[in-house]
Give the backbone structure.
Amino acid sequence: MSREWALFFQDIIDCCAKILNFTSGMTREQFEADALHYDATVWNVSLIGEAAKNIPEEVQKQLPAIPWRKLIGMRNKLSHGYFGVDNDILWNVIQDEIPKLVHEMQRIQRECPQLFHSDSPS
């Protein structure tokens, strides 16, 4: 039995919340110097991309405000870039993209509940 796509959608929101929690109140310098928070954040950014890959294309097309390709692309860069994480990009993702993403996804959950409880692709 495959996992329902709505659970992957929620995983993305949960990972965003963790990232925001891990980095709350930190400067970029503090973040880069804190291996535990840094690694946990990179891991969760990667998980966001992995979860995004599991959202069916039909659903992705219904939700064009979510940057699906960027989410998956970031995961691929982190997973296959080994030790080549670009901290400028990562910090921008944390500070700018993650808050927007979680806000938009929570809005979709609130305003489009039928999407999550219908016979949508799973």
